[in-house]
Amino acid sequence: PGRAGTARFLAQHNAWGFVATRAARGKIQGMPYGNCLLLSDGPVNNSTGIPFFYVTPKDNTVTDLLKNPMASLTLPEVDGNFCRKNVIDPEDPRCARLTLTGQMVTVPPEEVEFAKQAMFSRHPVVRKWPRSYEWFFMKMNIEHIWLQSWYGEVSPIAVEE
């Protein structure tokens, strides 16, 4: 229940999110850059609230993160009952959006098996992605949480919640 419950729901039920970084290359170096990435916060029966990603260094977003790990992740209420029942576009301000900010880090060896279970259980197709792309796991160490759940209203939520 409440804001923290909505945030946990969005973290658990989103299969993808929008990751914003600071570009580290070319003519857009230093400018904001964003990309949609698949994510999982754990296997369906073991949701953690920590977003895990299966990424390749060939992706511009990952190149940015390897130079500057600070990022924001926005999760829209695409699967929420309110928006679907009321036939409301997921980008309508009445549909909740969760934004997490923090550092994106490579998953340490002791957590790789959990990250595999998290990603592969929710996104089985990623097992078939070309191995030549040097895939690896990242996760976000969340530092700040904001929930927008109505017109313009943005509420901070303590990470501990």
From TrEMBL:
It is found in: Secreted. It comes from Tichodroma muraria. Keywords: Glycoprotein, Secreted, Signal. Residues 4-161 form the CREG-like beta-barrel domain. This is CREG2 protein. Belongs to the CREG family. GO terms for cellular component: cytoplasm; endomembrane system; extracellular space. The gene is Creg2. The keyword Glycoprotein applies.
